[in-house]
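Progress narrative, work stream C.
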Amino acid sequence: MATLIGLIIKAFSRDRCLKDFNKYPVALVLTDNESACGRCSLHSTGLELLYDKVTEKEGHPEASFLLYKSEYDRIFTARRYHSTLTEEMKKARQRILEKTYHPRFFRRLKRRIRNLFSSVKDAILEAFNMAFGQMKTRYGQDAALKSQDKYLRRIGTEAISSAATSYDALLERQIGSKVVVEVTTPDKSKIFFTGVFKEYTARFLEIMDVETKEDFSIDYSLSGEKSESGLRLSFTEGRLAVSNDNPFSVHIRELIQKIPPVPGEQEGAEPKEVSREMHIELEPGERAELELSPEATSLSIKAFSQRICDIIFPRATAIVRHRSEFKEGLGLKDFLPKF
C-alpha cells in the first residue's frame, strides 16, 4: 500500500504553474541564452518540448528538448504566445482566465483547503509521526515494520507536501489582479512585466495577458532571398522587398545601409553606414518595398514585435513588485471557514 501511494504521488506531483502550460506550444528561454520551442509535455520528473519537425543541429537530428526537474533553476522564462494557439486552445485558456478573475465556490474551497494544508503542514507532519509512533508502540518493534519505518515516514511526508505548497498571504491577495513583476536578468539588470496574476508555487510565478516587446535585427547581403525571424527579404533592381510571414505584426524601425569606401580613399577604411529611421508596421502576410542607395552592398534591418503571451517566471529571479489596478484580490476572510 505504501509503495502504491508513493507511485501515485510521484506520478501526479507536478508544479501547478507548469501544469497550466502542459500540451500548449511553449517558448522556453534559459539563463544561459539557450532556447527551445515546442509543444510542452509535462511529467513529474521534468518536461519535454516536442518540435513540429526533426531538425539537424551540430551534426545530429533533434525532435524534442528535455529539461529535467533538477534543471528547473536554469529557466529564465517560459512563454505561451497567444498567436501560436489554435482556436480550441484559445477557448480553453479563456475559460481558465475567467475562473481566475471570477473563481466559483468549489474553486475557492479547494484553494482554502490547500492553503490550510500549507499553513499547518508542520503540525500535520508531527501528527503523522505521532500516529506512526503509537502504531509501533501498540504492535511492538516488529522486524518488518522496523525496516519500513524510514520508507513509510517518507511516504507520509510526500503525501502531505504534495497537497501543501508554499503559501504566501501577500501573494494570495494579488491573484486575479493585474500586477507588475520585477525580473532580474542574468546581467543583474531589472526588467518589468505587467499582466494578470494567475498562480504561484514554491518555485514559479504565472502571469497571464502580458504584452511584450521583442527587438531583433537581420543582416542581409543583397543577394538571393533570406528568411529570418519570420521576415522574408529579397532584392530586385535597387528595391528591397520585405514580407511578414509571422502570425503577428512586426514594426520596422531602422534601416542601416552599408556603403563600401570610394576607390582612392584610405586603405582599410570601414564601409560607411547610412542609417534611416523608419515607421513601417507589417501585419501578418503584408509586404513592403524599400528603396535603397545604388552604392549599398549590404544592410541591416532593426525591427521589433509586440506580442501578447502568458509567462512563467522562477521566483528565484522574479517578484511581484506592484499591483497595477484597484481591485481586491483574495483576503484573509476568503480562507477562514464560513458557518
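Work stream C, second folded protein:
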Amino acid sequence: MIDILITNGRVIDPASGRDETANVAIANGFVSKIGRAAPKARKTIDASGKIVSPGLIDLHVHCREPGHEEEETIATAAASAVAGGFTTICAMPNTHPAQDDETAILYVLQRMARAGKARVLPAGCITKGREGKELAEMGMMRNAGAVAFTDDGTGIASSTVMQRALQYAKMIGVIIMQHCQDPDLFGGAMNSGAVAVRLGLPGIAASGEEIMLRRDLELVKRTGARYHAMHISSAGSVEIIRQAKAQGLPVTAEAAPHHLLLTDAACIGYDPNYKMNPPLRSAADVEALRQGVADGTIDCLATDHAPHSKEEKEMEFALAPFGIISLDCALALYAKALVHSGLMDWPDFLARLTVNPGQIIAPTLGLLQEGSPADITIIDPDKRWTVNVNKFASQARNCPYHGWRLKTRAVATIVGGEVKFEL
C-alpha cells in the first residue's frame, strides 16, 4: 500500500530537469513512483495549482541548544523549519559549550530524533572552542555525523590555522564553511557609510569581509579543499567568488533573505531587529547579490536564522546582539526577491534551495526522484499571506518582517515519508 499520494502537482526536480504535472507516490519513506498512475494510498494530497518540490534545505541555522534554550531549541528550530517548508537544516556550532567534539554532534542528532520534525544535521567547529587557535577533531566529528565545519560567528583570523584546516578537510573529504570577517576590521554596529554617519553609529566596512574571502581563496587554490562562503553581503564578495569560479576553484556561496531585500536605510529607526552580522548594506550590494544568485555565482539560499530573547533585542541598537529569524517566512522572502521580481524561474530558483545545498552537506537529499528519500515540500506559489511573528513555530520573535504582505507559501512539508506540517 502506498503511504501518501500527491496528485496533480507541478513536479519540479532541479537535479534531473523534471518539470511536469504528475503524481508522486510515497512508500516506506521513499519516493516510489512519479508519473500519471494513481494507486490507492492511505493519504492523498491534492496539489492542483501547486508546486511539488524536493524538500527545502537551509545550510545556516542557529538552534542555540545547548546553552541558550531560552532563545531557541533544536525542537523549536525544527518545528520552525517544517512550518517554512524546510525539511533539512544545518545546525551551527556556536552553542555553549561549542559543538567541537563527537559528543556534541551526537547530542544534536539525538535531540533531532526526539523532536521528530525536520532533519537537523550538525556542523562541527573548525577550532576547539571556536577560539581560532587549535584545530578541533574534525575526523571524529565527521564520523559521529557532522556534515560541515565552521566557526560561524567568528572568522578564522590566522592564515596558518585556516591553511591547516583546509588541508585536513581536504584529506578527510569535508567542507569548510567560513564566516568571512577580518576581526581587525570589525567592531561596528551597522554598515559603514552615510547612514551610519547620520545615525552616529560605528560602521562595519565590506572590506573586512572581502579581505578574508580573498585570503581564503588563495589558500583554497593552494590546498584544493572545498570551501563555502557563508552569508556574503557585498558586491565585492560576489565578484571575488565569480572570479574564483572562473578559475575552477571548489568554492560555493550562500546569500540570506535580508541581504536580498533590505538595505542599511532600514536601520534609520534604530530598531535592533535590523541589526545583523554581516550588516545590511547598500542598494547596489543588494542588486549585486540578486544578480549573483540569478547567474549561479551564489549557489545557495540560507537564512542565518539567529534567535534572540525579547529582552536582548530591546536593548539600544549599539548594544543589542546581531541576528534575526526568518525560517517560518524565508521561502516567500526569497520568492519576492528572485521569482516575483522576474529574475528567476521556479526550477532555477528551487535549485538554490534543494540540490545545490544538498550537494554540499548531504548529496542524497535535495532530490525528487524515484528511490530518493521522501523529503518533499508542496508550495502554493500564489498564496498571499501576512507575516505574524506571534504565530511562528520558532521560540523567538526577533524578526523585521512582521506585518509584511507576501506571496508564496509552503502548504505541506513531508520528511522521510511523513507529513510534518500541513497548512
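The chain is about 30% helix and 25% strand. No further action is required on this item.
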